[in-house]
Amino acid sequence: MAGNRNSGVMGAAPMYICHGAEHDFKFAAVVDSPWINQGLSLNPVSGETASISTEPEFGEYQKLLADGTEWKLKCPNEGTDIDFNLQVQSEFTAAPYPLPFKLGDYRRKILNTRDPISMPVVGDKVSAEIQVGSFYTGKVLAGIDVEWYFDGEEVETVPTTDVGWSKFDHTVTSVGEHTITAKVLSPYDGTTSEHIFTLNVYLESPWKEAKLLVNGVLVDWNSPNALLIRGQANDVTVEASFLSGNEVTLCLIDWGDLEIEALPEFGSPVLTPHAKASWTLTASGTKSGRITLELKSSAVAQTWVVRCAVSSANLADEAYVEIGGVVVPTEGNWFIRDQAQTVTLTPKSGSPLAGLPVTLTCTIKDGLDVANVVSEPTFNTAQTTHSWTVTGKTKSGTFQL
Question: Are 102 and 14 in contact (CB under 8 A)?
Protein backbone atom coordinates (compact mmCIF):
# COMPACT_ATOMS: atom_id res chain seq x y z
CA MET A 1 0.00 0.00 0.00
CA ALA A 2 2.85 2.40 0.62
CA GLY A 3 3.38 4.68 -2.34
CA ASN A 4 6.29 6.84 -3.41
CA ARG A 5 6.94 9.16 -0.51
CA ASN A 6 8.52 11.66 -2.92
CA SER A 7 5.24 12.17 -4.72
CA GLY A 8 3.80 14.14 -1.85
CA VAL A 9 0.51 12.20 -2.22
CA MET A 10 -0.35 9.49 0.25
CA GLY A 11 -3.62 7.73 0.82
CA ALA A 12 -5.78 4.68 0.23
CA ALA A 13 -9.44 3.94 -0.37
CA PRO A 14 -11.39 2.97 2.78
CA MET A 15 -10.96 -0.69 3.69
CA TYR A 16 -13.93 -2.75 4.90
CA ILE A 17 -13.39 -4.90 7.99
CA CYS A 18 -15.99 -6.92 9.85
CA HIS A 19 -17.28 -7.50 13.34
CA GLY A 20 -16.15 -10.88 14.66
CA ALA A 21 -13.37 -11.26 12.10
CA GLU A 22 -9.60 -11.45 12.31
CA HIS A 23 -8.19 -9.95 9.13
CA ASP A 24 -4.67 -10.27 7.73
CA PHE A 25 -3.47 -6.82 6.71
CA LYS A 26 -0.39 -6.52 4.53
CA PHE A 27 1.53 -3.30 3.93
CA ALA A 28 3.95 -3.36 1.01
CA ALA A 29 6.21 -0.77 -0.56
CA VAL A 30 6.93 -0.07 -4.21
CA VAL A 31 10.26 -1.25 -5.60
CA ASP A 32 13.24 0.80 -4.34
CA SER A 33 11.11 2.58 -1.72
CA PRO A 34 13.24 4.13 1.04
CA TRP A 35 10.80 2.59 3.56
CA ILE A 36 12.13 -0.94 2.89
CA ASN A 37 14.08 -2.32 5.89
CA GLN A 38 12.89 0.52 8.11
CA GLY A 39 11.00 -0.20 11.30
CA LEU A 40 7.25 0.41 10.97
CA SER A 41 4.45 0.56 13.50
CA LEU A 42 0.68 0.68 13.09
CA ASN A 43 -1.11 3.29 15.21
CA PRO A 44 -4.40 5.11 15.68
CA VAL A 45 -4.49 8.62 14.31
CA SER A 46 -3.88 11.21 16.99
CA GLY A 47 -7.12 12.13 18.72
CA GLU A 48 -8.99 8.98 17.60
CA THR A 49 -9.72 5.80 19.53
CA ALA A 50 -9.22 2.56 17.62
CA SER A 51 -12.16 0.17 17.64
CA ILE A 52 -9.95 -2.87 17.04
CA SER A 53 -6.80 -4.49 18.43
CA THR A 54 -3.81 -5.64 16.40
CA GLU A 55 -0.99 -8.17 16.42
CA PRO A 56 1.73 -6.92 16.70
CA GLU A 57 0.17 -4.36 19.03
CA PHE A 58 -0.22 -0.71 18.16
CA GLY A 59 3.09 1.13 18.41
CA GLU A 60 5.24 -1.99 18.16
CA TYR A 61 7.85 -1.74 15.42
CA GLN A 62 8.56 -4.44 12.84
CA LYS A 63 10.77 -4.30 9.78
CA LEU A 64 9.23 -3.58 6.38
CA LEU A 65 10.48 -6.42 4.20
CA ALA A 66 10.81 -6.24 0.44
CA ASP A 67 7.68 -8.37 0.00
CA GLY A 68 5.72 -6.54 2.68
CA THR A 69 4.90 -6.66 6.39
CA GLU A 70 1.72 -8.01 7.99
CA TRP A 71 -0.53 -7.28 10.95
CA LYS A 72 -3.57 -9.12 12.23
CA LEU A 73 -6.59 -6.86 12.71
CA LYS A 74 -8.85 -8.26 15.44
CA CYS A 75 -12.38 -6.89 15.33
CA PRO A 76 -14.95 -7.05 18.16
CA ASN A 77 -18.01 -9.26 17.77
CA GLU A 78 -20.45 -6.53 18.69
CA GLY A 79 -20.73 -2.80 18.19
CA THR A 80 -22.10 -0.19 15.84
CA ASP A 81 -20.73 0.47 12.38
CA ILE A 82 -17.95 3.03 12.55
CA ASP A 83 -15.44 4.75 10.27
CA PHE A 84 -11.98 5.33 11.73
CA ASN A 85 -8.38 5.88 10.69
CA LEU A 86 -5.05 4.21 11.39
CA GLN A 87 -1.62 5.18 10.16
CA VAL A 88 1.65 3.40 9.42
CA GLN A 89 4.62 5.26 10.89
CA SER A 90 8.32 4.91 10.21
CA GLU A 91 10.86 4.74 12.99
CA PHE A 92 12.36 7.84 11.39
CA THR A 93 10.75 11.17 10.51
CA ALA A 94 8.85 10.24 7.35
CA ALA A 95 5.24 11.42 7.24
CA PRO A 96 2.78 8.71 8.42
CA TYR A 97 0.81 6.79 5.81
CA PRO A 98 -2.95 7.24 6.50
CA LEU A 99 -5.28 4.24 6.31
CA PRO A 100 -9.08 4.78 6.45
CA PHE A 101 -11.21 1.85 7.64
CA LYS A 102 -14.91 1.00 7.82
CA LEU A 103 -15.86 -1.43 10.59
CA GLY A 104 -19.23 -3.13 10.30
CA ASP A 105 -21.00 -6.26 9.04
CA TYR A 106 -19.72 -5.86 5.50
CA ARG A 107 -19.32 -9.54 4.64
CA ARG A 108 -22.72 -11.15 4.42
CA LYS A 109 -24.24 -14.55 3.87
CA ILE A 110 -27.66 -16.08 3.42
CA LEU A 111 -28.61 -17.66 6.74
CA ASN A 112 -32.00 -19.18 5.90
CA THR A 113 -34.48 -19.44 3.06
CA ARG A 114 -38.22 -19.89 2.71
CA ASP A 115 -39.15 -21.55 -0.55
CA PRO A 116 -42.05 -20.45 -2.72
CA ILE A 117 -44.76 -22.94 -3.54
CA SER A 118 -42.96 -25.20 -5.98
CA MET A 119 -45.98 -26.01 -8.19
CA PRO A 120 -48.21 -22.96 -8.56
CA VAL A 121 -50.67 -22.44 -11.37
CA VAL A 122 -50.81 -19.50 -13.76
CA GLY A 123 -52.10 -16.44 -11.93
CA ASP A 124 -50.86 -17.51 -8.50
CA LYS A 125 -48.74 -15.17 -6.41
CA VAL A 126 -45.62 -16.90 -5.11
CA SER A 127 -43.40 -15.66 -2.31
CA ALA A 128 -39.72 -16.36 -1.74
CA GLU A 129 -37.72 -15.18 1.27
CA ILE A 130 -34.12 -15.16 2.43
CA GLN A 131 -32.60 -14.16 5.76
CA VAL A 132 -29.32 -12.26 5.63
CA GLY A 133 -26.69 -12.26 8.35
CA SER A 134 -23.07 -11.58 9.16
CA PHE A 135 -20.62 -14.02 7.57
CA TYR A 136 -18.56 -14.08 10.75
CA THR A 137 -20.98 -13.81 13.68
CA GLY A 138 -24.24 -15.05 12.15
CA LYS A 139 -26.05 -11.96 13.49
CA VAL A 140 -29.15 -11.14 11.46
CA LEU A 141 -28.81 -7.88 9.56
CA ALA A 142 -31.50 -5.27 9.00
CA GLY A 143 -31.69 -2.82 6.10
CA ILE A 144 -29.54 -4.88 3.72
CA ASP A 145 -30.57 -4.58 0.06
CA VAL A 146 -31.51 -7.85 -1.61
CA GLU A 147 -31.82 -7.88 -5.39
CA TRP A 148 -34.56 -10.17 -6.68
CA TYR A 149 -34.61 -11.65 -10.18
CA PHE A 150 -37.24 -13.65 -12.04
CA ASP A 151 -35.91 -15.85 -14.84
CA GLY A 152 -32.64 -13.92 -14.76
CA GLU A 153 -34.17 -10.44 -15.08
CA GLU A 154 -33.95 -8.05 -12.13
CA VAL A 155 -37.38 -7.15 -10.78
CA GLU A 156 -36.87 -5.20 -7.56
CA THR A 157 -34.68 -4.56 -4.54
CA VAL A 158 -36.17 -5.36 -1.12
CA PRO A 159 -34.23 -4.46 2.05
CA THR A 160 -34.19 -6.88 4.97
CA THR A 161 -36.48 -6.38 7.97
CA ASP A 162 -35.40 -5.99 11.57
CA VAL A 163 -35.13 -9.78 11.80
CA GLY A 164 -33.09 -10.05 8.60
CA TRP A 165 -35.72 -11.31 6.14
CA SER A 166 -36.28 -10.01 2.61
CA LYS A 167 -39.45 -11.16 0.84
CA PHE A 168 -40.21 -11.22 -2.88
CA ASP A 169 -43.77 -11.61 -4.19
CA HIS A 170 -44.42 -12.38 -7.84
CA THR A 171 -47.45 -13.42 -9.87
CA VAL A 172 -46.60 -16.17 -12.34
CA THR A 173 -48.10 -15.74 -15.80
CA SER A 174 -46.77 -18.62 -17.90
CA VAL A 175 -46.46 -22.36 -17.57
CA GLY A 176 -43.16 -24.20 -17.33
CA GLU A 177 -40.04 -24.08 -15.17
CA HIS A 178 -39.03 -20.71 -13.75
CA THR A 179 -36.41 -19.41 -11.35
CA ILE A 180 -36.39 -16.78 -8.62
CA THR A 181 -32.93 -15.58 -7.61
CA ALA A 182 -31.94 -13.53 -4.56
CA LYS A 183 -28.59 -11.74 -4.55
CA VAL A 184 -26.79 -10.04 -1.65
CA LEU A 185 -23.66 -7.93 -2.11
CA SER A 186 -20.79 -8.01 0.39
CA PRO A 187 -18.95 -4.65 0.25
CA TYR A 188 -16.06 -6.33 2.11
CA ASP A 189 -14.80 -8.05 -1.01
CA GLY A 190 -17.31 -7.11 -3.71
CA THR A 191 -18.66 -10.65 -3.98
CA THR A 192 -22.32 -11.62 -4.23
CA SER A 193 -24.11 -14.41 -2.39
CA GLU A 194 -27.12 -15.80 -4.17
CA HIS A 195 -29.83 -18.39 -3.78
CA ILE A 196 -31.92 -19.79 -6.63
CA PHE A 197 -35.47 -21.02 -6.10
CA THR A 198 -36.96 -23.24 -8.81
CA LEU A 199 -40.68 -23.61 -9.46
CA ASN A 200 -42.80 -25.35 -12.06
CA VAL A 201 -45.92 -23.46 -13.08
CA TYR A 202 -49.01 -25.32 -14.25
CA LEU A 203 -52.04 -24.03 -16.12
CA GLU A 204 -54.37 -25.29 -13.39
CA SER A 205 -54.40 -27.70 -10.46
CA PRO A 206 -57.31 -29.78 -9.16
CA TRP A 207 -56.04 -29.11 -5.65
CA LYS A 208 -57.34 -25.55 -5.94
CA GLU A 209 -60.84 -27.00 -5.64
CA ALA A 210 -59.96 -29.01 -2.52
CA LYS A 211 -60.85 -27.94 1.01
CA LEU A 212 -58.11 -28.21 3.64
CA LEU A 213 -58.91 -27.66 7.31
CA VAL A 214 -56.38 -27.47 10.15
CA ASN A 215 -58.06 -27.56 13.55
CA GLY A 216 -61.26 -26.54 11.79
CA VAL A 217 -59.70 -23.47 10.16
CA LEU A 218 -59.85 -23.31 6.38
CA VAL A 219 -56.38 -23.08 4.79
CA ASP A 220 -56.32 -21.00 1.63
CA TRP A 221 -54.69 -22.37 -1.50
CA ASN A 222 -50.91 -21.84 -1.30
CA SER A 223 -51.19 -20.17 2.11
CA PRO A 224 -47.78 -19.98 3.85
CA ASN A 225 -49.31 -19.80 7.29
CA ALA A 226 -51.28 -22.91 8.29
CA LEU A 227 -50.92 -23.07 12.06
CA LEU A 228 -50.24 -26.15 14.20
CA ILE A 229 -50.17 -25.91 18.00
CA ARG A 230 -47.34 -27.81 19.66
CA GLY A 231 -48.05 -30.00 22.67
CA GLN A 232 -51.53 -30.99 21.52
CA ALA A 233 -53.27 -33.02 18.83
CA ASN A 234 -54.01 -31.14 15.61
CA ASP A 235 -56.74 -32.26 13.23
CA VAL A 236 -55.92 -32.06 9.51
CA THR A 237 -58.68 -32.83 7.01
CA VAL A 238 -58.76 -32.64 3.21
CA GLU A 239 -61.86 -32.90 1.05
CA ALA A 240 -62.06 -32.93 -2.76
CA SER A 241 -64.36 -34.57 -5.26
CA PHE A 242 -61.46 -36.01 -7.27
CA LEU A 243 -60.29 -37.94 -4.17
CA SER A 244 -63.39 -40.13 -4.11
CA GLY A 245 -62.35 -43.77 -4.45
CA ASN A 246 -58.66 -42.88 -4.68
CA GLU A 247 -55.76 -42.81 -2.29
CA VAL A 248 -54.28 -39.67 -0.72
CA THR A 249 -50.99 -39.43 1.14
CA LEU A 250 -49.79 -36.84 3.62
CA CYS A 251 -46.00 -36.45 3.63
CA LEU A 252 -43.65 -34.51 5.88
CA ILE A 253 -40.96 -33.12 3.57
CA ASP A 254 -39.31 -30.49 5.79
CA TRP A 255 -39.37 -30.39 9.57
CA GLY A 256 -36.00 -29.01 10.70
CA ASP A 257 -35.32 -30.21 14.23
CA LEU A 258 -38.98 -30.41 15.27
CA GLU A 259 -40.61 -33.64 16.44
CA ILE A 260 -43.78 -34.26 14.41
CA GLU A 261 -45.88 -37.42 14.39
CA ALA A 262 -48.98 -38.28 12.38
CA LEU A 263 -51.78 -40.81 12.64
CA PRO A 264 -52.16 -42.35 10.08
CA GLU A 265 -48.39 -42.16 9.62
CA PHE A 266 -46.73 -39.78 7.20
CA GLY A 267 -46.22 -41.39 3.81
CA SER A 268 -48.95 -43.99 4.27
CA PRO A 269 -51.66 -43.93 1.55
CA VAL A 270 -55.18 -43.44 2.88
CA LEU A 271 -58.27 -44.62 0.99
CA THR A 272 -60.94 -41.96 0.49
CA PRO A 273 -64.22 -43.67 -0.40
CA HIS A 274 -66.12 -40.53 0.61
CA ALA A 275 -63.72 -37.98 -0.95
CA LYS A 276 -62.35 -37.08 2.47
CA ALA A 277 -59.31 -38.00 4.61
CA SER A 278 -58.17 -36.95 8.05
CA TRP A 279 -54.98 -37.12 10.12
CA THR A 280 -54.02 -36.24 13.67
CA LEU A 281 -50.69 -34.41 13.89
CA THR A 282 -48.80 -33.97 17.16
CA ALA A 283 -45.80 -31.69 17.62
CA SER A 284 -44.01 -32.69 20.81
CA GLY A 285 -41.21 -30.91 22.64
CA THR A 286 -40.79 -27.24 23.44
CA LYS A 287 -39.49 -25.94 20.11
CA SER A 288 -41.43 -23.84 17.64
CA GLY A 289 -40.61 -23.46 13.96
CA ARG A 290 -41.83 -24.24 10.49
CA ILE A 291 -42.59 -27.49 8.69
CA THR A 292 -43.69 -28.36 5.19
CA LEU A 293 -46.40 -30.91 4.44
CA GLU A 294 -47.25 -32.35 1.04
CA LEU A 295 -50.51 -33.88 -0.12
CA LYS A 296 -50.32 -36.45 -2.91
CA SER A 297 -53.09 -38.31 -4.68
CA SER A 298 -53.11 -41.09 -7.20
CA ALA A 299 -55.79 -39.10 -9.02
CA VAL A 300 -53.66 -36.11 -10.02
CA ALA A 301 -50.11 -35.49 -11.15
CA GLN A 302 -49.61 -32.36 -9.05
CA THR A 303 -49.08 -32.27 -5.31
CA TRP A 304 -50.20 -29.68 -2.79
CA VAL A 305 -47.36 -28.26 -0.71
CA VAL A 306 -48.64 -26.87 2.60
CA ARG A 307 -46.33 -24.69 4.69
CA CYS A 308 -47.13 -24.67 8.39
CA ALA A 309 -46.01 -22.77 11.44
CA VAL A 310 -45.64 -24.80 14.64
CA SER A 311 -46.27 -22.55 17.62
CA SER A 312 -47.07 -22.58 21.30
CA ALA A 313 -50.67 -21.91 22.29
CA ASN A 314 -49.26 -19.26 24.64
CA LEU A 315 -48.17 -16.19 22.66
CA ALA A 316 -45.77 -15.23 25.48
CA ASP A 317 -43.66 -18.29 24.56
CA GLU A 318 -43.22 -16.92 21.05
CA ALA A 319 -42.59 -13.18 21.38
CA TYR A 320 -41.62 -10.22 23.51
CA VAL A 321 -44.09 -7.36 23.94
CA GLU A 322 -42.66 -3.85 24.20
CA ILE A 323 -44.40 -0.53 24.79
CA GLY A 324 -42.41 2.52 23.82
CA GLY A 325 -39.39 0.30 23.14
CA VAL A 326 -39.36 -1.16 26.69
CA VAL A 327 -40.38 -4.70 27.67
CA VAL A 328 -43.69 -4.60 29.52
CA PRO A 329 -43.15 -5.08 33.29
CA THR A 330 -45.31 -7.50 35.27
CA GLU A 331 -47.13 -4.64 36.99
CA GLY A 332 -48.17 -3.16 33.63
CA ASN A 333 -47.62 0.15 31.82
CA TRP A 334 -48.73 3.74 32.30
CA PHE A 335 -50.32 5.64 29.44
CA ILE A 336 -50.65 9.42 29.54
CA ARG A 337 -53.84 10.77 27.98
CA ASP A 338 -53.43 11.97 24.39
CA GLN A 339 -49.83 10.68 24.23
CA ALA A 340 -49.54 7.80 21.78
CA GLN A 341 -47.31 4.84 22.57
CA THR A 342 -46.15 2.15 20.18
CA VAL A 343 -46.90 -1.46 21.08
CA THR A 344 -44.65 -3.95 19.30
CA LEU A 345 -44.48 -7.72 19.23
CA THR A 346 -40.99 -9.11 18.51
CA PRO A 347 -40.65 -12.85 17.77
CA LYS A 348 -38.24 -14.80 19.95
CA SER A 349 -35.40 -16.76 18.36
CA GLY A 350 -36.76 -19.76 16.46
CA SER A 351 -40.36 -18.58 16.57
CA PRO A 352 -42.35 -18.77 13.31
CA LEU A 353 -44.46 -15.81 14.38
CA ALA A 354 -42.96 -13.40 11.79
CA GLY A 355 -45.47 -13.06 8.95
CA LEU A 356 -48.35 -14.64 10.89
CA PRO A 357 -51.43 -12.48 11.47
CA VAL A 358 -51.75 -11.22 15.06
CA THR A 359 -54.68 -9.33 16.56
CA LEU A 360 -54.40 -6.70 19.31
CA THR A 361 -57.47 -6.47 21.53
CA CYS A 362 -58.41 -4.02 24.27
CA THR A 363 -60.51 -4.83 27.34
CA ILE A 364 -61.74 -1.94 29.50
CA LYS A 365 -61.22 -2.74 33.17
CA ASP A 366 -62.26 0.40 35.08
CA GLY A 367 -63.17 4.05 34.58
CA LEU A 368 -63.05 4.12 30.76
CA ASP A 369 -65.37 3.82 27.81
CA VAL A 370 -64.45 1.85 24.71
CA ALA A 371 -63.95 5.10 22.78
CA ASN A 372 -61.32 6.27 25.28
CA VAL A 373 -58.64 3.87 24.02
CA VAL A 374 -57.91 3.75 20.29
CA SER A 375 -55.32 2.05 18.11
CA GLU A 376 -53.85 2.41 14.65
CA PRO A 377 -54.20 -0.16 13.11
CA THR A 378 -57.53 -0.65 14.84
CA PHE A 379 -58.11 -3.19 17.59
CA ASN A 380 -59.46 -6.62 16.63
CA THR A 381 -57.99 -6.59 13.12
CA ALA A 382 -55.35 -9.16 12.20
CA GLN A 383 -51.99 -7.60 11.27
CA THR A 384 -48.71 -9.08 10.04
CA THR A 385 -46.60 -5.99 10.90
CA HIS A 386 -47.00 -6.56 14.68
CA SER A 387 -46.87 -2.87 15.56
CA TRP A 388 -49.71 -0.69 16.85
CA THR A 389 -49.96 2.94 17.98
CA VAL A 390 -52.22 3.10 21.05
CA THR A 391 -53.63 6.31 22.55
CA GLY A 392 -55.74 6.91 25.65
CA LYS A 393 -58.18 9.83 25.56
CA THR A 394 -60.41 12.01 27.76
CA LYS A 395 -60.74 9.81 30.87
CA SER A 396 -58.49 8.06 33.34
CA GLY A 397 -58.83 4.38 34.14
CA THR A 398 -57.39 0.95 33.47
CA PHE A 399 -57.48 -1.30 30.45
CA GLN A 400 -55.84 -4.49 29.27
CA LEU A 401 -54.23 -5.18 25.88
Answer: yes
